[in-house]
Amino acid sequence: MDKAEMASLFEAFKLNELWMHLIPKLSEGIKMKLEPYVHVDVGGSKIGGMPDLPDSIAWPHAYEQPLAFVAQINLSEVTEWDLDEKLPTSGWLYFFYDALNEHWGNVPEDYWHFAVRYFDGDISQLKPAVPPEKLASENQFLSANTVFYPQTTFPDESSVAWPKVGLTRKQWMSLGDLEEHVYELNSGRYNQLLGHSTNLQSGMEQLCVQMSQHFFETEHGSADDWVLLLQLDSNDKECGMMWGDCGVLYFWIREQDLAQRRFEKCWCVMQCF
Questions:
Q1: What is the pLDDT of residues 55-71, one digit of tens each?
Q2: Average pLDDT over residues 218-245
Q3: Could you report the per-residue pLDDT of 160-212, keeping only the tens digit for each?
Q4: What would be one Pfam family of this protein (predicted)?
Q5: List of long-range contacts for 165-170, beta carbons under 8 Å, 24+ apart
Q6: How many angstroms separate the CA atoms of 72 and 118, rounded?
Q7: CB–CB of 234/47 below 8 Å?
Q8: Cβ distance 253 to 229 under 8 Å?
Q9: What is the pLDDT of residue 73?
Q10: How many CB atoms within 10 Å of residue 145?
Protein backbone atom coordinates (compact mmCIF):
# COMPACT_ATOMS: atom_id res chain seq x y z
CA MET A 1 0.00 0.00 0.00
CA ASP A 2 1.51 3.30 -1.06
CA LYS A 3 0.77 6.82 0.20
CA ALA A 4 -2.03 7.46 -2.28
CA GLU A 5 -3.76 4.18 -1.46
CA MET A 6 -3.46 4.91 2.24
CA ALA A 7 -4.93 8.38 1.79
CA SER A 8 -7.94 6.83 0.06
CA LEU A 9 -8.29 4.37 2.92
CA PHE A 10 -8.37 7.12 5.56
CA GLU A 11 -10.95 8.95 3.46
CA ALA A 12 -13.09 5.82 3.23
CA PHE A 13 -13.07 5.52 7.03
CA LYS A 14 -13.87 9.25 7.40
CA LEU A 15 -10.54 10.08 9.02
CA ASN A 16 -9.39 12.83 6.63
CA GLU A 17 -8.45 15.24 9.43
CA LEU A 18 -6.32 12.61 11.18
CA TRP A 19 -4.65 11.77 7.87
CA MET A 20 -3.46 15.36 7.47
CA HIS A 21 -1.75 15.13 10.87
CA LEU A 22 -0.19 11.77 9.97
CA ILE A 23 1.31 12.76 6.62
CA PRO A 24 4.53 14.23 8.15
CA LYS A 25 4.87 11.10 10.31
CA LEU A 26 4.66 8.48 7.55
CA SER A 27 7.54 6.03 7.17
CA GLU A 28 8.41 3.63 4.37
CA GLY A 29 8.56 -0.01 5.42
CA ILE A 30 9.13 -3.32 3.64
CA LYS A 31 6.44 -5.94 4.11
CA MET A 32 7.35 -9.61 4.01
CA LYS A 33 5.07 -12.33 2.72
CA LEU A 34 6.08 -15.85 3.73
CA GLU A 35 6.00 -18.83 1.39
CA PRO A 36 6.30 -22.09 3.37
CA TYR A 37 7.65 -25.31 1.86
CA VAL A 38 9.57 -23.39 -0.81
CA HIS A 39 13.26 -24.19 -1.33
CA VAL A 40 15.57 -21.28 -0.48
CA ASP A 41 19.01 -21.21 -2.10
CA VAL A 42 22.06 -20.60 0.07
CA GLY A 43 22.14 -16.90 0.94
CA GLY A 44 18.46 -16.31 0.19
CA SER A 45 16.16 -14.49 2.57
CA LYS A 46 14.21 -16.79 4.85
CA ILE A 47 12.27 -16.98 8.09
CA GLY A 48 13.11 -19.98 10.27
CA GLY A 49 15.00 -23.06 9.19
CA MET A 50 18.79 -22.93 9.51
CA PRO A 51 20.97 -19.91 8.67
CA ASP A 52 23.68 -19.79 6.03
CA LEU A 53 26.64 -18.55 8.04
CA PRO A 54 30.25 -17.69 7.22
CA ASP A 55 33.01 -19.11 9.42
CA SER A 56 33.44 -15.66 10.98
CA ILE A 57 30.01 -15.79 12.66
CA ALA A 58 29.45 -18.28 15.45
CA TRP A 59 25.96 -19.38 16.45
CA PRO A 60 24.91 -17.06 19.33
CA HIS A 61 24.32 -18.58 22.77
CA ALA A 62 22.74 -17.35 26.00
CA TYR A 63 24.42 -18.88 29.05
CA GLU A 64 25.73 -21.80 26.98
CA GLN A 65 22.32 -22.47 25.42
CA PRO A 66 21.97 -21.88 21.64
CA LEU A 67 19.43 -19.24 20.62
CA ALA A 68 16.77 -19.87 18.01
CA PHE A 69 17.51 -18.69 14.49
CA VAL A 70 14.48 -16.68 13.35
CA ALA A 71 15.39 -14.73 10.20
CA GLN A 72 18.00 -14.28 7.49
CA ILE A 73 17.73 -11.21 5.26
CA ASN A 74 19.73 -10.92 2.05
CA LEU A 75 19.97 -7.14 1.88
CA SER A 76 20.54 -7.10 -1.88
CA GLU A 77 17.00 -8.51 -2.23
CA VAL A 78 15.38 -5.59 -0.40
CA THR A 79 17.39 -2.63 -1.72
CA GLU A 80 14.81 -1.64 -4.35
CA TRP A 81 12.11 -1.47 -1.67
CA ASP A 82 14.23 0.48 0.83
CA LEU A 83 12.88 3.80 -0.40
CA ASP A 84 14.53 5.83 2.37
CA GLU A 85 17.88 4.05 1.81
CA LYS A 86 18.37 3.14 5.46
CA LEU A 87 19.72 -0.41 5.09
CA PRO A 88 23.08 -1.51 3.70
CA THR A 89 22.78 -2.41 0.04
CA SER A 90 24.74 -5.63 0.42
CA GLY A 91 25.36 -8.36 2.96
CA TRP A 92 23.17 -10.42 5.25
CA LEU A 93 21.39 -9.77 8.52
CA TYR A 94 20.80 -12.69 10.90
CA PHE A 95 18.33 -12.56 13.79
CA PHE A 96 18.33 -14.88 16.80
CA TYR A 97 16.06 -15.07 19.85
CA ASP A 98 15.63 -17.23 22.96
CA ALA A 99 12.33 -18.83 21.96
CA LEU A 100 12.59 -21.34 24.80
CA ASN A 101 12.40 -18.71 27.57
CA GLU A 102 10.71 -15.88 25.62
CA HIS A 103 12.19 -12.84 27.31
CA TRP A 104 10.16 -9.63 27.01
CA GLY A 105 13.06 -7.22 26.67
CA ASN A 106 11.96 -5.22 29.70
CA VAL A 107 14.95 -5.93 31.98
CA PRO A 108 18.67 -5.38 31.22
CA GLU A 109 19.51 -9.10 31.48
CA ASP A 110 17.37 -9.75 28.38
CA TYR A 111 20.25 -8.37 26.29
CA TRP A 112 21.83 -11.83 26.31
CA HIS A 113 18.72 -13.57 25.00
CA PHE A 114 18.71 -12.20 21.46
CA ALA A 115 21.33 -11.41 18.84
CA VAL A 116 21.66 -9.65 15.50
CA ARG A 117 24.63 -10.38 13.26
CA TYR A 118 25.76 -8.75 10.02
CA PHE A 119 28.02 -10.18 7.31
CA ASP A 120 29.13 -8.21 4.26
CA GLY A 121 31.34 -10.68 2.45
CA ASP A 122 30.99 -12.86 -0.62
CA ILE A 123 28.18 -15.38 -0.88
CA SER A 124 30.76 -18.07 -1.54
CA GLN A 125 31.70 -17.84 2.15
CA LEU A 126 28.22 -18.86 3.27
CA LYS A 127 27.27 -22.43 4.05
CA PRO A 128 24.24 -24.01 5.74
CA ALA A 129 24.87 -24.03 9.47
CA VAL A 130 24.81 -27.27 11.42
CA PRO A 131 22.43 -26.88 14.38
CA PRO A 132 24.31 -26.81 17.69
CA GLU A 133 24.16 -30.00 19.72
CA LYS A 134 22.21 -28.40 22.58
CA LEU A 135 19.67 -26.59 20.38
CA ALA A 136 16.30 -27.14 22.08
CA SER A 137 13.33 -28.22 19.98
CA GLU A 138 11.55 -25.01 21.03
CA ASN A 139 14.40 -23.12 19.34
CA GLN A 140 13.96 -24.79 15.95
CA PHE A 141 11.51 -23.71 13.26
CA LEU A 142 10.47 -24.69 9.78
CA SER A 143 11.82 -22.58 6.93
CA ALA A 144 9.79 -20.19 4.76
CA ASN A 145 10.84 -18.16 1.75
CA THR A 146 10.14 -14.42 1.84
CA VAL A 147 8.74 -12.09 -0.79
CA PHE A 148 9.23 -8.36 -0.23
CA TYR A 149 7.10 -5.41 -1.27
CA PRO A 150 6.93 -1.72 -0.24
CA GLN A 151 4.50 -0.52 2.39
CA THR A 152 3.87 3.03 3.57
CA THR A 153 3.23 2.92 7.32
CA PHE A 154 1.73 5.31 9.86
CA PRO A 155 2.66 5.35 13.57
CA ASP A 156 0.78 3.41 16.21
CA GLU A 157 -1.15 5.60 18.62
CA SER A 158 1.19 4.50 21.45
CA SER A 159 4.33 5.43 19.49
CA VAL A 160 6.40 8.56 20.18
CA ALA A 161 5.72 9.51 16.55
CA TRP A 162 1.94 9.68 17.03
CA PRO A 163 0.79 13.28 16.43
CA LYS A 164 -0.69 15.26 19.29
CA VAL A 165 -4.26 15.33 18.06
CA GLY A 166 -7.53 14.74 19.87
CA LEU A 167 -9.98 12.19 18.51
CA THR A 168 -13.61 11.59 19.35
CA ARG A 169 -14.80 8.18 20.50
CA LYS A 170 -16.29 7.60 17.05
CA GLN A 171 -12.97 8.47 15.39
CA TRP A 172 -11.08 6.09 17.67
CA MET A 173 -13.48 3.33 16.71
CA SER A 174 -13.02 4.14 13.01
CA LEU A 175 -9.25 4.05 13.47
CA GLY A 176 -9.54 0.61 15.05
CA ASP A 177 -11.62 -0.58 12.10
CA LEU A 178 -9.06 0.86 9.67
CA GLU A 179 -6.17 -0.88 11.44
CA GLU A 180 -8.05 -4.17 11.36
CA HIS A 181 -8.62 -3.69 7.64
CA VAL A 182 -4.89 -3.09 7.05
CA TYR A 183 -4.12 -6.22 9.08
CA GLU A 184 -6.40 -8.26 6.85
CA LEU A 185 -4.82 -6.75 3.72
CA ASN A 186 -1.48 -8.00 5.05
CA SER A 187 -2.88 -11.54 5.33
CA GLY A 188 -3.09 -11.31 9.11
CA ARG A 189 0.66 -11.00 9.63
CA TYR A 190 2.95 -8.30 11.07
CA ASN A 191 6.16 -9.29 9.23
CA GLN A 192 8.05 -6.17 8.25
CA LEU A 193 11.42 -4.45 7.86
CA LEU A 194 11.68 -0.75 8.78
CA GLY A 195 8.65 1.54 8.89
CA HIS A 196 6.49 2.10 11.96
CA SER A 197 5.89 -0.77 14.36
CA THR A 198 2.43 -2.25 14.87
CA ASN A 199 2.27 -2.36 18.66
CA LEU A 200 0.29 -5.01 20.48
CA GLN A 201 0.79 -3.16 23.76
CA SER A 202 2.53 0.16 24.49
CA GLY A 203 5.17 2.01 22.50
CA MET A 204 8.70 0.64 22.83
CA GLU A 205 11.04 3.51 21.98
CA GLN A 206 11.45 4.75 25.56
CA LEU A 207 11.95 1.21 26.79
CA CYS A 208 14.80 0.84 24.29
CA VAL A 209 16.43 3.96 25.72
CA GLN A 210 16.13 2.70 29.29
CA MET A 211 17.46 -0.78 28.55
CA SER A 212 20.25 0.14 26.15
CA GLN A 213 21.89 2.57 28.55
CA HIS A 214 23.01 -0.41 30.61
CA PHE A 215 25.16 -1.64 27.70
CA PHE A 216 25.90 1.19 25.30
CA GLU A 217 27.32 3.74 27.74
CA THR A 218 26.01 7.27 27.00
CA GLU A 219 25.17 6.52 23.37
CA HIS A 220 21.63 5.30 24.00
CA GLY A 221 20.15 8.64 22.83
CA SER A 222 16.51 9.68 22.99
CA ALA A 223 13.32 7.83 22.10
CA ASP A 224 13.18 9.65 18.77
CA ASP A 225 16.48 8.04 17.74
CA TRP A 226 15.11 4.50 17.75
CA VAL A 227 13.67 2.93 14.60
CA LEU A 228 12.18 -0.45 13.85
CA LEU A 229 14.59 -2.84 12.13
CA LEU A 230 12.50 -6.03 12.03
CA GLN A 231 8.99 -6.94 13.15
CA LEU A 232 8.34 -10.70 13.19
CA ASP A 233 4.93 -12.20 13.81
CA SER A 234 3.95 -15.56 15.33
CA ASN A 235 4.18 -17.36 12.00
CA ASP A 236 2.75 -20.55 13.43
CA LYS A 237 1.17 -21.95 10.26
CA GLU A 238 4.16 -21.11 8.08
CA CYS A 239 7.09 -21.90 10.41
CA GLY A 240 5.75 -23.19 13.72
CA MET A 241 6.67 -19.91 15.46
CA MET A 242 4.71 -18.67 18.45
CA TRP A 243 5.82 -15.74 20.63
CA GLY A 244 3.90 -15.92 23.91
CA ASP A 245 0.18 -15.83 23.10
CA CYS A 246 0.18 -14.95 19.38
CA GLY A 247 2.77 -12.25 19.95
CA VAL A 248 5.28 -10.31 17.87
CA LEU A 249 9.06 -9.83 18.11
CA TYR A 250 10.42 -6.32 17.53
CA PHE A 251 14.08 -5.61 16.85
CA TRP A 252 14.93 -1.93 17.33
CA ILE A 253 18.07 0.09 16.55
CA ARG A 254 19.13 3.72 16.75
CA GLU A 255 19.27 5.48 13.39
CA GLN A 256 22.92 6.38 14.02
CA ASP A 257 23.83 2.77 14.69
CA LEU A 258 21.90 1.59 11.63
CA ALA A 259 23.77 4.07 9.43
CA GLN A 260 27.10 2.85 10.84
CA ARG A 261 26.08 -0.84 10.68
CA ARG A 262 26.46 -1.35 14.43
CA PHE A 263 23.85 -4.07 14.62
CA GLU A 264 25.18 -5.36 17.93
CA LYS A 265 23.45 -2.32 19.44
CA CYS A 266 19.93 -3.52 18.70
CA TRP A 267 17.31 -4.13 21.36
CA CYS A 268 14.60 -6.80 21.12
CA VAL A 269 11.13 -6.60 22.64
CA MET A 270 8.41 -9.25 22.66
CA GLN A 271 4.75 -8.29 22.99
CA CYS A 272 1.69 -10.52 22.95
CA PHE A 273 -2.06 -10.38 23.54
A1: 999 999 999 999 999 99
A2: 90
A3: 999 989 899 999 999 999 999 998 888 778 999 999 999 999 999 999 999 98
A4: DUF1963
A5: 165/17, 165/18, 165/21, 167/18
A6: 10
A7: no
A8: yes
A9: 98
A10: 19
Q: What pLDDT, in 10s, does the model give residues 110-164?
A: 999 999 999 999 999 999 999 999 999 999 999 999 999 999 999 999 999 999 8
**Rounded to whole angstroms, how far apart are CA atoms 200 and 184?**
16
CA angle 247, 250, 255 (to 5 degrees): 165
> Hey, what amino acid is at 130?
V
62 vs 65: CA distance, rounded Å: 5
Q: What are the DSSP calls for the chain, one per residue? A: --HHHHHHHHHHTT-HHHHHHHGGG-EEEEEEEEEET----TT--EESS--EE-TT-PPPEETTEEPEEEEEEEGGGTGGG-TT--S-SSSEEEEEE-TTT---S-SGGGGGGEEEEEE-S-GGG-EEPPPPTT--GGG----EEEEEEEEEE---TTSTTS------HHHHHHHHHHHHHHHHHTTT---EEES----SSS--HHHHHHHHTTTSTTTT--GGGEEEEEEEE--HHHH----TTT-EEEEEEEHHHHHTT-GGG-EEEEE--
Report helix angle 169-185 to 3-12, nearest 10: 130
Distance CA 229, CA 169 (A): 32
Q: Give residue 273's identity as a one-letter amino acid code.
A: F
Q: How far apart are CA 232 and CA 132, in angstroms?
A: 23
Asked whether 75 and 87 are in contact (CB, 8 A), the reply is yes
pTM of the model: 0.95
